[in-house]
Amino acid sequence: xxxxxxxxxxxxxxxxxxxxxxxxxxxxxxxxxxxxxxxxxxxxxxxxxxxxxxxxxxxxxxxxxxxxxxxxxxxxxxxxxxxxxxxxxxxxxxxxxxxxxxxxxxxxxxxxxxxxxxxxxxxxxxxxxxxxxxxxxxxxxxxxxxxxxxxxxxxxxxxxxxxxxxxxxxxxxxxxxxxxxxxxxxxxxxxxxxxxxxxxxxxxxxxxxxxxxxxxxxxxxxxxxxxxxxxxxxxxxxxxxxxxxxxxxxxxxxxxxxxxxxxxxxxxxxxxxxxxxxxxxxxxxxxxxxxxxxxxxxxxxxxxxxxxxxxxxxxxxxxxxxxxxxxxxxxxxxxxxxxxxxxxxxxxxxxxxxxxxxxxxxxxxxxxxxxxxxxxxxxxxxxxxxxxxxxxxxxxxxxxxxxxxxxxxxxxxxxxxxxxxxxxxxxxxxxxxxxxxxxxxxxxxxxxxxxxxxxxxxxxxxxxxxxxxxxxxxxxxxxxxxxxxxxxxxxxxxxxxxxxxxxxxxxxxxxxxxxxxxxxxxxxxxxxxxxxxxxxxxxxxxxxxxxxxxxxxxxxxxxxxxxxxxxxxxxxxxxxxxxxxxxxxxxxxxxxxxxxxxxxxxxxxxxxxxxxxxxxxxxxxxxxxxxxxxxxxxxxxxxxxxxxxxxxxxxxxxxxxxxxxxxxxxxxxxxxxxxxxxxxxxxxxxxxxxxxxxxxxxxxxxxxxxxxxxxxxxxxxxxxxxxxxxxxxxxxxxxxxxxxxxxxxxxxxxxxxxxxxxxxxxxxxxxxxxxxxxxxxxxxxxxxxxxxxxxxxxxxxxxxxxxxxxxxxxxxxxxxxxxxxxxxxxxxxxxxxxxxxxxxxxxxxxxxxxxxxxxxxxxxxxxxxxxxxxxxxxxxxxxxxxxxxxxxxxxxxxxxxxxxxxxxxxxxxxxxxxxxxxxxxxxxxxxxxxxxxxxxxxxxxxxxxxxxxxxxxxxxxxxxxxxxxxxxxxxxxxxxxxxxxxxxxxxxxxxxxxxxxxxxxxxxxx
Length: 1006
Fold this sequence. Notes:
By secondary structure, the chain is mainly β. The chain is 6% helix and 47% strand. The protein contains 7 helices and 48 strands. The strands form 11 sheets. The chain has a 22-stranded antiparallel barrel. The protein has a 5-stranded mixed sheet with strand order 10-15-16-13-14. A hairpin with a 6-residue loop joins strand 39 (819-822) and strand 40 (829-831). The longest helix has 19 residues, at 6-24. It starts with 5 loop residues before the first helix and ends with a strand.
């Protein structure tokens, strides 16, 4: 089979493009030739510096009023030079500041201090993907953060930068282990399949697959398989826009069903070549630990458990029978999780260019150790190159971007969090006096043995894009974007013989290794045409384009066992036995045609129509194509005559949208009748076995999205606010329908007539409290109240999903028993017998549906500036309930929460917790089993967290073109919560919580 594609020829293609870029450069790259114009013998050369009253402003446009072509741009130090007549007027403009008109009056030096203009915030252009739109004219729902928000955060994952800063965007950290992942949901969960709710990521116009690149066999240190998003360096990002409603996402069709995350990297600015060096170092520790029993409390619990069961201590009960020191106490959470992770970052940037060509070259390095004992480290390094070019006549434009990153993650294959919580507090010391691991006469499994079982991941990631455009006329532009990405990862997990107590004499012949090789490459080409015309006192903007995309993924899972030496464990050729666990190749092809019609009449009424015809290789003949579209509208009522000159209302807009998107996140070849290798030899030939039934009828999931919003600005936009209501309904759900075992297949991929609804309200509030020359203070607030609900599911009661979902309840529910309390006579937990059969049975009595979705969430940010000082802090808040940490029956040989010391002991006792047992009391064991599946485990897991705080000071240097800034930053610094069992932010318990990070940085720019 021929698999030729850009995957093979992409490097040659980009070499050709890069050569064309270099050839297109002119001598203007090196200097400002052509920037100035000469008028007459009365002209004078004017020089000066442009500031905001305190700091220099680079990239400010300076023009001579009434003279075409007479313009200049300030350099990094804010300096400019332009030639004008002594009677001319300079027009100085910069986004975020009031336009200034400065009479020359024969002066040769004019220093200019621009004034902030909050009303221009509505003129800021927002990236909507295939087009950009002014904030005031936006008909869709788009949340945005910029590099100013990102640079204050000492984080390594792009999703971490978004936490608490965007309405409608819920981001949860799944583990504090370096290289771990995050869970993101944009306006809730649309699909019944948990792995089909990821948004579309676009980096500089190139789709970036967020599908896991790891294997559950090798990525055991994480809550989920390794995510490719760790390759993205937040320090290179200029802005992140999140598209949420149908108006914003429908142009992306099926790929945008769960929202779109647009990432734009930093670009160079015209001016003198600028060098920037940033170095930071920091430390990270666990935010919160569980409150566990000390040795005395633990031994009292154990002794009472034996007394309750009426049995003597056994030979293996080392903690209470005197084998282990009963006066010894070890806080295992501090011992195994209480280390300090060291973080180091270095970044260097070179940028500059002429008015026609700008460039930016960035190199970065990041390292982070763990809080676990041992020498483990996560490393990431890479580079980013961006080049912008335009011709002298401004008709031809080109944007080139390329980024390459390498990761090397070396961790223990086991997260120590669970071990640290369960180990007996009087367990033996970790080391002998000679520094070797202490096995205490084979009475325990030393937890540090897991340091010999290593997880290692090496990832290389390339992403490159080019956008070419040509202005045929003032109203017609042709453009095309080209993108290529190539990702390769190698993961291994070792199980050497050193995992075991040397007394057992286990040799390397039992050592083993799992390996996962994943390669993923894709290319995309998107030709487009854009036509603009003034019609009937309005502006018509028409966009049409096409998408051609292909992605090829290959995976190879291997297992090897039996080595002559552990030093050869990474050499599979040295293994006695090698097994191929899986070897897959999949190809995904996607083709689409899209369009947009936008009409803005008199800056008052705006209509925005988008449509896309999608074609996906993931569906069978007759179902491969589908059409999605949306309509959005806005009324800028503040531009009406009766409000246009209002002294209090500076901006007012009503907007709304309705449309559809699809979803094809079902995996490749799901409709085909497929076969896989059986791994069993017959007559010397490995046979095949059927793995999937043919079903050509299943098709696209359909998401219908509705939104209405009000946006207001008061007092020249010193106060802005927005309120949005949304309702999304996802139907025709793609799931695996269970089949009877007699068919030989567990499931059949098909569409279910189930409908999921996400409904909510989003509020944002921004104020400019003070805005003087020396002191500035602004506040931002966002709030989201969301509700997820299963509306329809025909035949749910008789399906295999009957004990997972409930009509009218969220998808993320947990069915539970209902606890009545502790029986005062028996000391056992009692539960409600819903079917009154005299027994507690499953599923009849496990019917209480607990909603584990956040009720509301948001963030409050304040930014202060005083002369050379800056202070920025963000509080994140989440209202939710979750379960307590399950630690088994109280009384067995593992530690428990300190609150269990008040358990029931004697008849008549009124207690919240039942009788202790070593495990011999079967009734107590069974009631404890029900307990962790009951509503008794539900607790308030809401929290308010000082998510980020940053303080910076710019040193007052005497060098004009040199700036030095000192920064102190912290992440997760304070957490306020009623949650009893550690940190309240988690998806699945048992993994390392987020770290509290404090870092210091120095940035030098010259």
